[in-house]
Amino acid sequence: MMFDLPNDDTLYDALLARDATYDGRAYVGVSSTGIFCRLTCPARKPKRENCRFYADVASCISAGFRPCKRCHPLDPAAQSDPTIGKLLAALDARPAYRWSEPDVMRMGLDSSTVRRAFKRHFGRTFLEMARSRRLASGFTALSAGSVIDAQLDAGFDSPSAFRAAFAKLMGAAPGTLSRDALLRADHLKTPLGDMIAVCDKRALHLLEFADRKALPTEMQKLRKAAKGSVGIGRFETHDQIASELDAFFAKRCDSFTTSLALHGTAFTREVWKTLQTIPAGETRSYSAIAASMGAPQSIRAVARANGANQIAIVIPCHRVIGADGSLTGYGGGLWRKQQIIDLERHHAKRRLP
Predict the structure, then answer these.
(1) Sheet of 195-199, strand order
(2) Cα–Cα distance, 69 to 73 (Å, whole number)
(3) Burial 102-117 (b: 16+ CB within 10 A, else e)
(4) Which of 37, 51, 60, 71 is catalytic?
(5) pLDDT tens digits, residue range 294-333?
(6) 119: buried, middle or exposed (CB in 10 Å: 19+, 13-18, 0-12)?
(7) Is 160 helix (H, G, I), strand (E, B) or coil?
(8) Cβ(34)–Cβ(335) under 8 Å?
(9) Quick check: pTM over 0.85?
(10) DSSP symbol at 232
(11) Is 37 one of the annotated active-site residues of the chain?
(12) Strand, coil or helix: what is 325?
């Protein structure tokens, strides 16, 4: 029988009391650190506004949180399956390593068995978890003040690595990706991990974190819209958005002037344009956005349009939060969403006289 979580206030009280009643049935994700814990964790307790509660480990991982090293929330799964325990120990020992299926096989493990076991317990494969951990290590390095280390931890290690990864994403051989296509993709380094930018000569069509789950679907839509003319390369548009992102993360400027190509219905485009009117440093609820558009009954449609945004940061879907003030889903991970919101609040303070 599925366990229904009590309200967040009850769970926060349980967290403060280290109440074992919910052990294994509720977990807390801490947006300020990107870590998730058991409610009995011995670590210092986070502020209430930084807590997000989940019913299982898979939900925490899907939301972009990484496991705590003090309360070890992944231990039950590791203890129940020696294969999982062996790989989790290897991942803890080498969190920045680029794990692959041959690595798994060299450990004497069957890759298909590993894939099924991790999917069953965590909702994602071991390789997906390893990549998330590597990206999350970029966040840790950033918090410690090392932007360069963060980029190296999270990014592609060479242009050829990006080309191979992008070819796999597109379902094509690397050699078939044209360098004179109408739409061209390149990767941009940011302190929060690699982003993929797809541009033509005049506008930005897509800007997403490279580990976003919806990226393959988004790329296929773009490929269809461009009649297959999507390749690898760089336009001046890439240089412009790269420069503007650098200024944004360096806390010099929070505005973007790169031209955008919006792919969506008329209503969806209207939602995206409304998002761009929210001042940096501020947030809005779905209902507030719907009301501002003169469509107060269209809250769900607004939420769908927000989730369909494929130009991250520039079209600020991260500024949308729950009606109760909590962070809601974000394709790049809630830890990134919190970091971007905090960065924009810094920009807002900088503008004050």
Answers:
(1) 204-209, 195-199, 183-188, 230-232
(2) 8
(3) ebbeeeebebeebbeb
(4) 37
(5) 999 999 999 999 999 999 999 999 999 888 887 777 888 8
(6) middle
(7) helix
(8) yes
(9) no
(10) E
(11) yes
(12) coil
